[in-house]
Design a protein that fits this description.
The chain folds into 2 domains: 6-168, 3-Layer(aba) Sandwich (Aspartate Aminotransferase, domain 2); 172-268, Aspartate Aminotransferase, domain 1 (Alpha-Beta Complex), CATH 3.90.1150. It contains 10 helices and 9 strands. The protein has helices at 15-24, 36-45, 69-78, 101-105, 133-142, 144-147, 154-169, 172-191, 210-221, 252-268, and strands at 6-10, 27-31, 52-57, 82-86, 113-117, 127-131, 202-208, 228-230, 240-245. A 6-stranded mixed beta sheet has the order 2-1-3-4-5-6, sandwiched between helices. It has a 3-stranded antiparallel beta sheet with strand order 7-9-8, with helices on one face. It is globular, with a radius of gyration of 20 Å. It starts with 5 loop residues before the first strand and ends in a 5-residue tail after the last helix. The structure holds pyridoxal-5'-phosphate. Pyridoxal-5'-phosphate (PLP) binds at residues 14, 16, 57, 61, 86, 88-89, 117, 119, 127. Pyridoxal-5'-phosphate is lined by residues 14, 16, 57, 61, 86, 88-89, 117, 119, 127.
Length: 273
């Protein structure tokens, strides 16, 4: 996108998306988080004859909730906008085969540009963009971030390639991840914690102010559970949290242990009764 074009971005999209939008020089419009009526209002108000792009994380990196892809696809078609989705947290997580947001909604081929990192479920570095050949060819010749940075080291590319195969060859990992995620989220909710609308492996445990989030982190880490705090401005002030992540490598007993630790800390700090 460039000057004169319009980009519509979810309010809590990852910082790298925000920076990309700003660097593009396009008109930048933010819609309220997952608020499709607000997105439609902004699309409606944009000039009809400009290039438009709607962009969002498929799974939000700090909240763990999932986009309303069917509605986004519908709006993009209605207002002639391209759709770009960042699959950093859905690849290897969503869908029975773990292939991501399109599989989750059974909406294959409806996203114009999919990008993802190679730093989450794919344990490497770098990232990818997947789109029609013309778009990829355009990016190869026009994307400054691509042209002016070094290529992936071959070892990292090979590791990433193998990890994609593991996702496809070992679907039990996705099943296990889903079981662990359900156990963890429902357990925390049952204790009275606010985990926002997460349905995925990213589980926010809302603490309130930043100091409480730091204190919770210390308490939980002292019980041998690795969690990290996320505080403002990375998230809205007052919604500081622990950001816990479940993996397929966890055993049910690990999840129990983590929940006990968080429960004890939450009681001590008065977050739950
Ligand atoms: C949604 C999203 N997009 C992009 C990135 C950037 O990933 P990387 O650090 O691999 O460049 C992240 C990681 O933090 C992310 O959560």
């Amino acid at each position: 996108m460039g000057r004169g074009d319009y980009v519509f971005s979810d309010k809590i999209n990852h910082a790298s998306i925000v920076d990309g939008c700003l660097m593009s020089g396009a008109e930048f419009r933010r819609y309220r988080h997952n608020d499709m009526a607000h997105l439609e209002g902004l699309l409606k108000n944009a000039p009809a004859d400009v290039a438009k792009l709607v962009i969002a994380d498929s799974v939000f990196s700090m909240d763990g909730d999932i986009i309303d892809l069917p509605k986004m696809v519908e709006l993009c078609k209605k207002y002639n906008a391209w759709l770009m989705i960042d699959e950093a947290h859905s690849l290897g997580v969503l869908g029975e085969k773990g292939t991501g947001i399109e599989e989750y909604y059974n909406l294959y081929g409806e996203i114009d540009i999919k990008m993802g990192t190679l730093s989450k479920t794919i344990p490497s570095v770098g990232g990818y963009v997947a789109a029609k050949e013309e778009i990829i060819s355009y990016l190869r010749h026009a994307s400054r971030a691509y042209i002016f940075s070094a290529a992936l080291p071959p070892g990292q590319a090979a590791a990433a390639n193998e990890a994609f195969k593991v996702i496809l060859d070992e679907p039990w990992r996705i099943e296990r991840l889903n079981e662990n995620t359900k156990q963890f989220i429902s357990g925390l909710k049952g204790m009275g914690f606010n985990t926002l609308l997460t349905e995925t492996a990213i589980v926010p445990v809302i603490c309130g102010d930043d100091d409480t989030a730091f204190a919770m982190t210390r308490e939980v880490q002292h019980q041998d559970v690795f969690v990290l705090p996320v505080v403002s401005p990375a998230v809205e002030a007052g919604l500081a949290r622990l950001r816990a992540t479940v993996t397929a490598a966890h055993e049910p007993s690990d999840i129990e242990h983590a929940m006990d630790a968080i429960e004890k800390a939450g009681k001590k700090l008065g977050l739950i009764k």
